[in-house]
Amino acid sequence: MTEESAVRAARDLRVVVGRLRRRLRALAGSDALTPSQTSLLTRLGKEGPASASALAAAEGVRPQSVATLLAALDEQGLIDRRPDPADGRRQVISLSAAGQRMFESTSRAREEWLARSLQDRFTEAERQTVIEALALLDRLAE
Question: 59 burial class (0-12, 13-18, 19+ CB within 10 angstroms)?
């Protein structure tokens, strides 16, 4: 049987992470992109070039869904496509210069908001507690 503290921690964590994700998404300022498009843009910005099938697997969606998302990003000039040197039938997707700028500005805005909020709302001791909790959550995510 799962202990009550584990159930409460799971529920509270899910709620807080959801609220934080919505807040960060609102800060992105990329109203032209859907959350799914933003997720692909962010993944390409963090992890670098990838095939459409690798992106679909990483995002946990069907390849057809990724193809639709990539078409929208391509239409906005946010990605580049080039033949895969290892398999000419596939394409490698990467951020275009405009996509890289959008990724960097969005990431910077989110990080600045988080840093300011942590500084303004928490004491140094509380920030250290957050850092320690994040190490535990990182272990959970692995």
Answer: middle
Average pLDDT over residues 22-41: 80
Buried b (16+ CB within 10 A) or exposed e, 23-54: eeeeebebeebeeebbbbbbbbbeeebbbbeb
The CA distances from residue 123 to 13, 59, 129, in Å, are 21, 36, 10
CATH of the domain at 32: 1.10.10.10
This prediction has a pTM of 0.75
Determine the Cα–Cα distance for residues 110 and 114; give it in Å rounded to an integer.
Answer: 6
pLDDT score of 28: 65
Instruction: Give the C-alpha separation, 129 to 127, whole Å.
Output: 5
Q: Is the per-residue pLDDT at 30 higher than 60?
A: no
Number of domains in the chain: 1
